[in-house]
């Protein structure tokens, strides 16, 4: 287990840190991940890389944390996406548009929401997303496409109603 930790702790830590942008929380979740992995190592079926399995455990722990805190999208994520343009008016409009997009993403069904966030914020490939979610690469690709279609349709509906 020590070797498993040495080989994968950084991967799990950085995966979670990119989502939560909080060093202490990322460390805490990383530790909890390896504790849970140790307790359920017999459930690992070798169908994916160990790092993918560990990241999926970490992802579930992070979701539990978010549910506990009653948050869907960390404010640090929204702030980190701010446009660095000098034009204050453009920054305000960009921020409003980003908030609208994030609100629409939050309304997507959970699998779609997760695929969009993993693809957009983590920049994971469809293959990696499929492995993490226990699905195929094609499933991740189709799910992302459907989510994007829904988001575009909602955006067009909002523009038409204005």
Q: How would you sum up the major sheet?
A: none
Amount of beta strand: under 5%
Give the helices and strands as they follow along the chain. Answer: HHHHHHHH
Number of helices: 8
Query: If you compute it from the alpha carbons, what radius of gyration comes out, rounded to the nearest whole angstrom?
Result: 18 Å
Coarse structural class: mainly alpha
Unreliable stretches (pLDDT < 50, length at least 5) are: 81-86
Distance between the termini: 58 Å
What's the average pLDDT? 79
Estimate the global geometry from the Cα principal axes. Answer: globular
Number of strands: 0
* Helix share, percent: over 70%
Describe this structure in words.
With 162 residues, this protein is mainly alpha-helical. Helix content is 76%, strand content 0%. The chain is built from 8 helices and no strands. It has helices spanning 2-20, 23-39, 50-69, 75-80, 88-106, 110-120, 126-132, 137-160. α6 crosses α8 (137-160). The longest helix is centred in the last third of the chain and has 24 residues, at 137-160. The protein is globular, with a radius of gyration of 18 Å. It starts with a helix and ends with a helix.
Fill in the keyword field for this structure:
globular, single chain, mainly alpha, 162 residues, 76% helix
What would a concise description of this structure say?
With 162 residues, this protein is mostly helical. It is built from 8 helices and no strands.
């Amino acid at each position: 287990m020590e070797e498993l930790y040495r080989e994968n702790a950084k991967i799990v830590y950085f995966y979670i840190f990119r989502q939560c942008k909080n060093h202490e929380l990322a460390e805490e979740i990383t530790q909890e991940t390896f504790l849970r992995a140790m307790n359920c190592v017999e459930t690992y079926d070798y169908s994916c890389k160990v790092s993918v399995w560990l990241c999926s455990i970490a992802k579930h722990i992070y979701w539990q944390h978010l549910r506990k805190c009653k948050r869907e999208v960390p404010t640090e994520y929204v702030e980190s996406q701010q446009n660095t343009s000098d034009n204050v008016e453009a920054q305000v409009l960009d921020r409003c548009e980003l908030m609208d997009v994030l609100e629409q993403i939050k309304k997507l069904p959970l699998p779609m929401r997760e695929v969009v966030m993993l693809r957009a914020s983590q920049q994971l490939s469809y293959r990696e997303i499929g492995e993490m979610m226990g699905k195929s690469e094609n499933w991740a690709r189709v799910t992302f496409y459907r989510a994007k279609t829904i988001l575009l349709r909602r955006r067009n509906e909002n523009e038409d109603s204005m």
